[in-house]
């Protein structure tokens, strides 16, 4: 319980989960605190006044988030005589280096940035405050992704979306009604993003078994305690049922914390995230505006689970030593797919060349242990049905993706990051093409 009225409980008490740690490394205690209530705006304003007094504070929102929470918060801050500067982004802002420069120019002597919003507004505030080494508070407006509590921000730099380190907020102030009433599509996106962890955790275990030994069970233990509160309630999340949507939101907050605890995005970002990053980066070439992060990740989950399904059916006798040939074939596609950005992508892919070469002997050698991991992944049919049960369409058309662009990402997404994922396993086991076709069947 909090003795100081300006302190709120931490989102996670690490002590509750330390028994789940299997790596024996230090895990930094997450410092993010959470206040949740219909009076969150008043409480935030009082805290802000008490902590920063007359020092300048910068408040960020866009027209949508102003309407649902920004206006009320602004009034409360003014009523508390906070030294306030506000900035409203245009509708549907994109987190670019240009907007980061705009925010930086507004900071002046500000000691705190408050973002009212979800993905973009949150990332703009998180990244700008982190760069300026000032405090950051967040007022989330949708359960749409797990970035509220994560240590990264997605920013488009010179036209290419990058995932950059950024300090998580010190405080979150949540208006439950706003989260609950967020548009259906945003709720569906968050549902996909939080469930990615089910798949990416196995990606991480496979990588750890083959190479790094760096897996820790702590993030999975943390999520296991809350998973049922959202994974079993897609219809309720679709309908905006309070306990299901707040269960989802809580899962997203924990999943972001789990990432920062592990000191890596591995627990919540595997092959299913690579295809989403692939489509984000391809905007510079195709002009296709990316779909919501979580929805692209959802399509990636169908692909990853289709890979696991194919891998499960494969006998170790069918494994061929073909790492060199497969690496060369994928590397040859990089200039074709990436044009002016090919050098940067090639660098990432070359970084894992030595690891990929070892697949020739490691896959047969570890096949039995890998199989016991493959067996734990639910089928792509299960996830496709689950995501559709939220009530919003779940297919390539809805995400403005062509079959060609999906296939391109499925077969080449593994080249854009040096992390080893199920996409590398499937490619080297010779089942990536077949799994891509399986996934397409479910996404048409
Ligand atoms: Zn650990
Ligand atoms: Zn994600």
From TrEMBL:
InterPro entries given in the database record: G1PDH (IPR032837), Glycerol_DH (IPR016205)
Gene3D superfamilies: 3.40.50.1970, Dehydroquinate synthase-like - alpha domain
GO biological process: phospholipid biosynthetic process
Keywords in alphabetical order: Cytoplasm, Lipid biosynthesis, Lipid metabolism, Metal-binding, NAD, NADP, Oxidoreductase, Phospholipid biosynthesis, Phospholipid metabolism
Keyword Transcription regulation annotated: no
Entry's Gene Ontology molecular function annotations: metal ion binding; oxidoreductase activity, acting on CH-OH group of donors
Cross-referenced PANTHER family: GLYCEROL DEHYDROGENASE (PTHR43616), GLYCEROL DEHYDROGENASE 1 (PTHR43616:SF5)
Protein name per the record: Glycerol-1-phosphate dehydrogenase [NAD(P)+]
Originating species: Desulfuromusa kysingii
């Amino acid at each position: 319980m909090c003795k100081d009225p300006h302190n709120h409980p931490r989102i996670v008490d690490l002590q509750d989960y330390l028994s789940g740690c299997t790596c024996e490394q230090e895990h930094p205690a997450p410092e993010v605190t959470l206040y949740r209530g219909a009076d969150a705006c008043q409480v935030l304003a009082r805290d802000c006044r008490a902590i920063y007094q007359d020092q300048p504070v910068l408040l960020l929102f866009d027209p949508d988030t102003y309407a649902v929470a920004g206006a009320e918060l602004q009034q409360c801050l003014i009523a508390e005589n906070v030294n306030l500067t506000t900035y409203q982004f245009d509708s549907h802002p994109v987190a670019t280096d240009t907007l980061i420069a705009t925010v930086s120019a507004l900071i002046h002597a500000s000691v705190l940035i408050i973002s009212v919003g979800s993905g973009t507004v949150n990332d703009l505030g998180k990244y700008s405050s982190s760069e300026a080494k000032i405090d950051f508070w967040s007022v989330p407006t949708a359960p749409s992704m797990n970035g509220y509590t994560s240590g990264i921000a997605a920013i488009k730099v010179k036209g290419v979306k990058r995932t950059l380190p950024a300090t998580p907020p010190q405080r979150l102030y949540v208006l439950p009604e706003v989260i609950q009433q967020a548009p259906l599509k945003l709720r569906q996106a968050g549902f996909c993003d939080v469930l990615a962890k089910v798949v990416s955790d196995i990606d991480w275990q496979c990588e750890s078994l083959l190479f790094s030994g760096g897996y820790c069970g702590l993030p999975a233990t943390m999520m296991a305690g809350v998973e049922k509160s959202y994974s079993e309630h897609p219809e309720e999340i679709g309908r905006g049922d309070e306990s299901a949507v707040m269960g989802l939101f809580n899962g997203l907050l924990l999943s972001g914390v789990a990432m920062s605890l592990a000191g890596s995005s591995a627990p919540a970002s595997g092959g299913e995230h690579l295809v989403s990053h692939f489509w984000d980066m391809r905007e510079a070439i195709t002009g296709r505006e990316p779909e919501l992060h979580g929805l692209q990740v959802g399509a990636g989950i169908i692909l990853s689970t289709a890979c696991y399904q194919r891998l499960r059916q494969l006998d170790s006798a069918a494994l061929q030593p073909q790492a060199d040939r497969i690496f060369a074939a994928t590397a040859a596609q990089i200039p074709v797919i990436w044009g002016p950005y090919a050098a940067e992508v090639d660098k990432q892919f070359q970084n894992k060349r030595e690891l990929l070469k070892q697949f020739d002997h490691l896959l047969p050698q570890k096949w039995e242990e890998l199989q016991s991991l493959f067996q734990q992944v639910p089928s792509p049919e299960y996830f496709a049905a689950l995501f559709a049960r939220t009530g919003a369409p779940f297919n390539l058309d809805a995400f403005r993706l062509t079959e060609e662009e999906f296939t391109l990402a499925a077969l080449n997404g593994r080249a854009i990051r040096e992390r080893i994922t199920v996409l590398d396993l499937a490619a080297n086991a010779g089942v990536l093409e077949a799994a891509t076709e399986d996934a397409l069947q479910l996404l048409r």
